[in-house]
């Protein structure tokens, strides 16, 4: 299984970025996809996800939009009105049972850096 993220970069406050993530490999049935972020010296927190429901962290509600394509196993994160406090490494994750065994699997991308300058 491969998780490939793209779209990070440097942007000024108030700007926008779009993160994309694609999960390849059909060994498991994905029932949850999400974006986490980790700022320097802080824990990794869930930003937005699509599973049985769609979730947004309070800090990004109204500014970020998550979209998932189940057929393509992709998830995108549209980030608008970016703030310096959004600066972090953003990680894509996908969860679900392995088709052959039913064992639950979590896969993570390498992370993509988003830097918002003031």
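Sequence proposed for the structure above (118 residues):
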């Amino acid at each position: 299984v491969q998780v490939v993220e793209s779209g990070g970069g440097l942007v000024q406050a108030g700007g926008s970025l779009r993160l994309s993530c694609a999960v390849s490999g059909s060994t498991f049935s994905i029932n949850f996809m999400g974006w986490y972020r980790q700022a320097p010296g802080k824990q990794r927190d869930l930003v937005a996800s699509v599973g049985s429901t769609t979730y947004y962290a309070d800090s990004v509600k109204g500014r970020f939009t998550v979209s998932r394509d189940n057929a393509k196993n992709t998830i995108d994160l549209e980030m608008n009105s970016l703030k310096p406090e959004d600066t972090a490494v953003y990680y894509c994750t996908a969860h679900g049972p392995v088709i052959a065994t039913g064992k639950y699997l979590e896969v993570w991308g390498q992370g993509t850096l988003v830097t918002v300058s003031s």
